[in-house]
Design a protein that fits this description.
By secondary structure, the protein is of the alpha+beta class. Helix content is 21%, strand content 32%. The strands form 2 sheets. The chain has a 5-stranded antiparallel β-sheet, sandwiched between helices. A 3-stranded antiparallel β-sheet has the order 6-8-7.
């Protein structure tokens, strides 16, 4: 499935075409770099992603989709998400730091909801990174609880959300 959408940016008057496509094995290194280089995981959060790897096996096992710039970004991966079907969960959602605030995250969430609906999922869980809590509220996720710390990898509690997927 490949969707090409025209994104208008709040921070730039120029519209950028963005394609969402299924990730493939050769995307693994780029996705890993996006996770490890995320500014949201700087400082005290760095340990959570320091050794994190999005491998070809992960891409094959789950529904991983990438947002790719088709114009000025020349095929660059701008963001991605991973939908796990059993149990239903949005496992990963990252947008490159330099393009945040331009609607790419919202676009990925809308795509994820469409994929979940097509798979017959009516709700799915998200364990959010603390700095992303406001984002999930803004895109319609409902806070359902707390995922408690799991030291040493994640030494802080994290908010849990649920997306309720309306039937099409």
């Amino acid at each position: 499935m490949r969707n090409t959408l025209l994104m208008s940016s709040r921070t730039s008057p120029v519209s950028q075409p963005i394609a969402i496509r299924r990730a493939v094995a050769r995307d693994a290194k780029r996705l890993t770099r996006l996770v490890r280089g995320s500014g949201a995981y700087a400082g005290k959060y760095a340990a959570a992603v320091a050794g994190y790897r999005v491998g070809p096996d992960y891409i094959e096992a789950h529904r991983v989709f990438v947002a790719v710039g088709t114009d000025e970004h020349g095929g660059r991966v701008l963001g991605f998400y991973s939908l796990v079907l059993a149990p239903p969960e949005l496992d990963l959602l990252f947008v490159a730091d330099d393009v945040q605030g331009r609607g790419i995250g919202r676009l990925l969430v809308a795509h994820m909801q469409s994929e979940a609906r097509a798979a017959g999922i009516d709700r799915l869980k998200v364990v959010s990174h603390l700095p992303a809590e406001d984002f999930y509220h803004c895109v319609g996720a409902v806070r359902t609880g707390t995922a408690f710390a799991n030291p040493p990898a994640v030494p802080w509690d994290r908010p849990e959300f649920e997306f309720r997927i309306p039937s099409g």
